[in-house]
Amino acid sequence: MVGIAKKKKSKKHEIIFIVCMLALPVAQWLVFWLSVNLSSIKLAFTDMRTGEFTWVNFRNVWENLTASYGEINIAVKNTFKYFLAHLLITNTIALVVAYFLYKRIALYKGFRIIFYLPAIVSSVAMTTVFSQFIAPSGLLGNIMNAFGRPLPPEGLLARAGSATNVIIFYTVWTGISTNMLLFGGAMTRVPVEILESARLDGCSAFREFFQMIFPLILPTVSTVIIVTFTTIFTSTGPILLFTRGDYETTTIAYWIFEKVYGNGVIGGSTANYNIVSCAGLCFTVVGVPIIMFVRYLMNKLPTVEY
Length: 306
Fold this sequence. Notes:
Elements (H helix, E strand, L loop, with lengths): L1 H43 L11 H11 L4 H32 L5 H13 L2 H12 L4 H8 L16 H12 L1 H13 L3 H9 L4 H12 L1 H12 L9 H4 L9 H10 L11 H28 L6
Helix pairs in contact: 1-14, 2-3, 2-14, 3-7, 3-8, 3-11, 3-13, 11-14
């Protein structure tokens, strides 16, 4: 009986400890997520002028989305460009770079610093230097002039046909570092004995990467893919620092910022929380099933324990 009483008391203390540890994060979730999102959902069904229930916000979002030159239409197209660039290009380059650094090529420590440098330097400084580099009077402009292919006089960032692609290139260049560290960390966990055995059997670097390294780090790759899909409607670049949304460079994230920021004062007269809340609700309804389906597919992939 004494042993049973001690077990019950220990279980009670354990429950109290768990409740105390979870109290703060649960309170934060209730205050900073649930209450905010409930208010946002309410705004999506509220008329901005009368405060009454309405579907007009959804109609405005749909019309803006389907119009050829609607703000939301352009923002969605650009957002998908950023998303696909990150999913297919940035992750692939990060994986390849991580492998070469893992193989400790010549000067690999220096290359590691070079590739991670964009994540350390201030984004304001990086965008300023990059803008000067691609300017008609900058280094890239001088190189193109030497080959007889001068840049447009207004520059690449002041043209609707090139501005978005230039910013995407910048995001790919500066976005390699984070995933490079994740992939590199996963590769360092691969048992050395497996690779040494493969080399004794005459395994080439190409086969080593695709048939050994990649399958062994597949859980990390799957996680990165799932995390990337969570940004399917929020992928963006430093639009504010480069173009302020001009020249058809706006994305969903920047469009939301611009609508909320209004005329320069948060909550100003031109701020439109209702249509932003409505658009956010619509993108959430579409995005969540996509993310859950991708997660389901990734969990179906075979994993290797080592």
